[in-house]
Design goal:
This protein has about 160 residues and is an alpha+beta fold. Helices cover about 30% and strands about 40% of the residues. Strands 3, 4, 5, 6, 7, 8 and 9 form a 7-stranded mixed beta sheet that branches. The longest helix is centred in the N-terminal third of the chain and has 18 residues, at about 30-45. The protein is globular, with a radius of gyration of 16 Å.
């Protein structure tokens, strides 16, 4: 039987490298980029717009709708706030992080369930593809976030 380490346990056991949830050794850059993703999802779960926005660059582009990216802090904040209306709950699959210099690519499948107020239950799934950029302080922020990365395959 394959043993799986939780993300937090892996961080505690391996201070300079970590294991992904799937047991793959991650470099410090991969771990740090992934921590930005986890910070964003924690902020989203808490419906904390400031925490969410702190994980994106000021000029980030996010595809809330497949094939169309929103830019601009106020537009992005409004879209996140609107999405809270269905009280979404996300689960994620395996995380893959590829780092090349100061750019990182994060890929993970996701599923979401929610409830439209006074309406039907909602269930969606997709493939999240995010591009992150290393900042001057060494941290990572998302520049492009496309939670609908599978859409071209679905056509």
């Amino acid at each position: 039987m394959k043993h799986r380490f939780s993300w937090l346990l892996a961080l505690a056991l391996l201070p300079t490298t970590a294991l992904s949830e799937e047991g793959h050794i991650m470099t410090p850059d991969q771990t740090n980029a992934l921590s930005t993703i986890f910070s964003m999802t924690a902020g989203y779960d808490a419906q904390d717009l400031d925490a969410i926005m702190s994980t994106y660059t000021a000029d980030a582009a996010i595809a809330f709708v497949p094939g169309t990216a929103l830019t601009g802090t106020e537009e992005i904040r409004a879209a996140f706030a609107e999405s809270f209306g269905i009280d979404p709950k996300f689960t994620f699959g395996e995380h893959e992080v590829i780092v090349a210099g100061d750019i990182a690519l994060h890929i993970t499948p996701w599923t979401m369930t929610g409830q439209v107020p006074d309406g039907p239950a909602v269930a969606e799934s997709g493939l999240s593809v995010a591009v992150l950029q290393r900042q001057a302080d060494g941290g990572w922020l998302m520049v492009i976030d496309n939670p609908h990365g599978q859409r071209l395959l679905d056509q």
